[in-house]
Design a protein that fits this description.
- With about 60 residues, this protein is mainly α.
- It has one domain.
- It is built from three helices and no strands.
- The termini are far apart.
- The mean pLDDT is about 95.
Length: about 60
């Protein structure tokens, strides 16, 4: 459960913004979207490998 302490006189929009930030950090929406359909472990591994290669390529380009 997410608890956002609200100080007296604090703006409700500010408290809502804190709540949204905390909720996003939990990763609940991301997990729900991932569970919407099953992905094989081999596909997950392949996607992770492609992402790692892409990030490494960007880092190499950044160094040059």
């Amino acid at each position: 459960m997410i608890i956002v302490p609200v100080k007296e006189g604090e703006n409700i929009e500010k408290a809502l913004k804190k709540f949204k930030r905390k909720f996003e950090k939990t990763g609940a929406i991301r997990e729900l979207r991932a569970r919407r359909e099953f992905t094989k472990p081999s596909v997950k591994k392949r996607v992770a490998m492609q992402k790692a290669i892409y990030v490494q390529h960007l880092q190499l380009q950044d160094e040059q």
